[in-house]
Amino acid sequence: MELTGKQKRHLRALAHHLKPVVLVGAAGVSEALVGHVTDALEDHELIKMKCGENAPLSIKEAAAEVSQATGCAVAGTIGRTAILYKRRAEDPEIELPKA
What we know:
Blueprint: H1 5-15, E1 22-24, H2 31-44, E2 46-51, H3 59-70, E3 73-78, E4 81-85
Parallel strand pairs: 1-2
Antiparallel strand pairs: 2-4, 3-4
């Protein structure tokens, strides 16, 4: 899923007040982590993922791996936090600006 700059800015603004719901730990991007991200995206559409200090990957590498595994889009990374978005198939809540 590819987002335009305008759509990324919109999603980053919506995610500003959110707390991270997924933490990448020493195990890195595992199947369990991908499962948690998938569930969280289905529940919320827009989530934050934080990379712990003992994680073997940088936040950009972890976000890229999770994005590839789940089909979500990375709206941005700030420090050790990534913002992930995936439109819900049924009953989507977030309306993206037109491209």
